[in-house]
Amino acid sequence: MQSSSARPDTSASVQGQGSHLGHDAHPGQAARAEKDPHGAHDGGAAVPATHPRADGRTLALLQALRAFAAIAVIIYHCHSEALNWLYPGQPRPPEIFPWMAGVDVFFVISGFIIVLSSRKLFGAPGGFRLFVMRRLIRVLPLYWAMTSLFLLVVLLAPGVLNSGVPDWRQILASYLFFPWPRADGLALPVYSLGWTLNYEMMFYTLCAGAVLLPRRLAVMAVALVLGLGVLIGALAGPLPEPFQFWTRPLVLDFIFGLFLGLLYGRGVAISPLLAWPGALVAVALLAMDLPTRPPLSDWPTLGPIAGYGLPATLLVAMAAFGETQKLSARVVGRIDFFRRPFASVVRVFAELGDASYALYLLHPFIIRAMRQVFVMLGFGTWMTSTLFALAGVIASSIGGWLLYRLVEAPVLRWLRRRAGV
After folding, report:
1. Which positions fall inside the Acyltransferase domain (predicted)?
2. How far is Cα 400 from Cα 221, in angstroms, rounded to an integer?
């Protein structure tokens, strides 16, 4: 399956020989189901949760937003798969939305939720152990399982994935979330979709060290390290890997999320009368795809942050600060699309947001299988790319939700009980 990235400054497109089943999402992942003793759920960007709670609110809008971000990534990958493999040579049509900006949304949410979910751990005895165990339990099992599945397919049927067998160093680096250059020079893991998790784990490592500090100092310390890294990467020119990978401007999304979390903890709220227009403005700014147009296109470092990161931050802020207790109460009620259409739709997408980690990691396998079906059926109309994307979203959503409910959630519950977290 073709791997491609929407951001040339984060990872180049992987086309031609050696392509991998995992897509390079635009450099990510969201709130998780892990609940601390004080009622907040543990979070991460492309990594999911049940509806995170804070101050009597479910933050279901935030979960729904994660579902939309995951769907945006799937749409991008479906279009890439169709155009690169089903219809090679056809020009890529102009996109109505920069779908890979969904990763910016994931990373902002990750920073936001890490502050809420760990607020009682900062500077507390035993906080470091709890933080590390929660992060490892949340991220490792499913990602290691999908990476192992990918390697199994590579060994048994390499032609299916158009991929050669990686060497042991790349395999080890993939399991350890360490950016390691492949033969083509790209610092991508074996299952290349996991490059976003390499960013997540780098962020969690910094937070784990900072959790020994009081919360505000911890946020400042992590923000300072990430910000200085980006500044050094911009001024010092191309750095050797993995430093080039770790100092890309995308990591500033984590900083934006961290400060949103501090503001939320101080009781900041926004009236829905302002939140909804603010969200529409954020979506409009993203749809303009400003980093591809002057003057932002002339700023490879600041352009993506100004054009993607800041609108994503505004969108997350509107979802988090604009959710009222009344809406929270309605969303957790029973689903009734006739009498409670809005709350029911939010509830459905919030539950899909719970499964967004499984959806994110599984969808390349589903897209590859769909590609084979479309080839056998001989689809070849001008609508095929659109139909392929629609089918991919539906199939991936169903598959990801089933994987979450039947496998991921039970395994996580068992591991948390065993670890006492």
Report:
1. 62-404
2. 36
Q: What is the length of the chain?
A: 421
Report the interhelical angle of 356-377 vs 341-354 (nearest 10°): 90
Task: Going residue by residue through the chain, which has 421 residues, state the pLDDT in tens, using 9 for 90 and above.
Answer: 433 333 433 322 222 222 334 333 333 333 333 333 233 344 333 443 334 554 445 688 899 999 999 999 999 998 888 877 766 666 666 678 899 999 999 999 999 999 998 988 998 899 999 999 999 999 999 999 999 999 998 888 766 666 667 888 999 999 999 999 887 778 899 998 899 999 999 999 999 999 999 999 999 999 999 999 999 998 987 888 899 999 999 999 999 999 999 999 998 989 888 999 999 999 999 999 999 888 888 887 788 999 999 999 999 999 999 887 777 767 776 776 777 778 788 888 988 999 999 999 999 999 988 888 887 777 765 557 778 889 999 999 999 999 999 999 999 999 999 998 8
Q: What's the CA gap between 2 and 14, in Å, rounded?
A: 7
For the CA atoms of 413, 418, 420, 421, the dihedral, rounded to the nearest 10 degrees, stands at -40
DSSP state of 15: -
**Which tokens is 9 given?**
């400054």
Residue 348 and residue 130: Cα distance in Å, rounded?
31
pTM score, whole prediction: 0.85
Q: Say how far apart CA 273 and CA 179 lie, in whole Å.
A: 44
Q: Structure tokens of 398?
A: 């169903």
Residue 67, Cα to own-chain centre: how many angstroms? Answer: 10
DSSP 190: S
Q: Which two tokens stand for residue 79?
A: 């279009």
Given the structure tokens 């900062």, which residue do they identify?
122
The distance of Cα 191 from the centroid of its chain, to the nearest Å, equals 15
31-35 and 41-43 as β-strands: parallel, antiparallel, unpaired? Answer: antiparallel
Contact 62, 279 (CB under 8 A): no
Cβ contacts of 375-382, under 8 Å, gap ≥ 24:
375/86, 379/86, 380/87
Long-range contacts, stretch 3-7, CB < 8 angstroms, 24+ apart: 3/188, 3/192, 3/193, 4/77, 4/80, 4/84, 5/100, 6/76, 6/98, 6/99, 6/100, 6/101, 7/100, 7/250, 7/304
| Closest by CA position to 224, among listed 265, 196, 262, 254 | 254
Query: Is residue 265 helix, strand or coil?
Result: helix
What is the C-alpha separation between 10 and 245, in angstroms, rounded? 7
